[in-house]
Design goal:
The chain is of the alpha/beta class. It is built from 14 helices and nine strands. Strands 1, 2, 3, 4, 5, 6, 7, 8 and 9 form a nine-stranded mixed β-sheet that branches. The protein starts with 18 loop residues before the first helix and ends with a helix. Bound molecules: fe (iii) ion.
């Protein structure tokens, strides 16, 4: 979707116009030129799709008068494009999902650090870059979903417990190729150290009922079809599936709630944004990211994808709130990026396809 365009004003003036009309036309043209110069614009490269971001940007334009132009695409191609364009890029903001991707963007020097009291106040410290190049804007929880005709909540406890031989042939997982699972395993390396994290992943692999699935929804459908008892997914996929087929015997379970160490809490990740290194309008870009973290924009941002607001003062959507509250894991999500390569190798050694 490419809708970056330049607007030029052209006013043909014919010599046959009377003097007064000509003067009026000239004034109108001058006014138009000035207005066009004044209309500030921010350009966003977004890995979040148009349907999720357009209502937000429209609301921002309505409130601020600032035009927001955007291109949507996969995070890989967008980052490649930013890199290739270098200082000629029109992009002021990169908006994408998963801290693993945001970390990669910072690592490739595609983002610039910014100082913002607003973002420090609105975004909890573990959900933003300690180097201030990117900031989480919505929270996604990667949790357990189980078949309610096969399990009781008391049968479940933690991600780590799913490595126990008692789950043999009862676990379904999404492929390790997806960044979500790479991030999950990266965080487990921080929590447990590499050897123990590897033992856990090996345990998961030996408990699989079937080969890993290409997406979270297919893994949940296998649980609903009794092919396995439990899986690990992002809650918004659960929300979408249950909206479509509310009778499925599936429920959410919040793991690791009774722990107090580094492994305490549900694994969370973010969608987020940063100001590009070569932004033409860095001040405008920062203002837009700050606005996205504000109370009034947060529901619009999170609810449209059944995610959680990142701003702790904002309540989630009613459908999301109905899943109950949970204690999140508090390790900085940047580890999802810094340990990603290690996690990929670990999953490969563990035979997690
Ligand atoms: Fe997703």
């Amino acid at each position: 979707m490419e809708n970056i365009r330049t607007i030029s004003f052209y006013s043909p003036m014919k010599a046959t116009y009377p003097m007064k009309s000509r003067l009026l036309l000239t004034l109108a043209a001058l006014l138009a030129c000035n207005l066009s110069a004044l209309a500030e614009e921010v350009v966003v490269y977004s890995a979040r799709n148009e349907q999720l971001i357009k209502p937000l940007f429209d609301a921002y334009t309505k409130e601020s008068g600032v035009q927001v132009k955007f291109i949507t695409g996969g995070e890989g191609p967008l980052m490649e494009r930013l890199k290739a364009e270098g200082q000629n890029t029109p992009a002021d903001i990169l908006l994408t999902v998963d801290a693993g991707n945001l970390w990669q963007a910072a690592q490739q020097e595609l983002l610039r650090p910014i100082t913002s009291k607003t973002l420090q106040d609105n975004v909890p410290a573990h959900l933003r870059d300690p180097g201030n190049t990117w900031f989480g804007l919505s929270v996604r929880a990667r949790t357990l979903v189980y078949n309610t005709t096969k399990l009781k909540p008391s049968d479940l406890s933690s991600y780590e417990d799913l490595a126990d031989p008692k789950w043999k042939g009862r676990l379904c997982l999404r492929t390790s190729k997806k960044v979500y699972n790479q991030s999950l395993v990266a965080m487990m390396i921080t929590e447990h150290g590499e050897p123990q994290a590897e033992a856990i992943v090996k345990g998961w692999v030996s408990n699989l009922a079937t080969a890993p699935f290409p997406d979270d929804t297919k893994a949940m459908e296998a649980v609903a079809n009794r092919q396995c008892d439990v899986t690990v997914v992002n809650t918004y996929y659960f929300g979408r599936l249950m909206e479509k087929t509310p009778k499925l015997p599936l429920a959410i379970y919040w793991p690791n709630q009774n722990l107090s160490g580094k492994d305490a809490g549900v694994h969370v990740n973010v969608s987020g944004a940063g100001v590009t290194r070569h932004a033409k309008n860095p001040a405008g870009a920062q203002k837009l990211i700050e606005w996205l973290s504000s109370d009034k924009a947060q529901n619009l941002y999170a609810d449209s994808n059944l995610e959680y607001p990142v701003n702790p003062r904002v309540k989630p959507d009613a459908q999301v709130a109905a899943w109950g509250t949970f204690k999140p894991n508090l390790i900085n999500v940047k580890d999802a990026g810094s340990l990603q390569a290690q996690a990929v190798k670990l999953m490969d050694r563990a035979g997690y396809k």
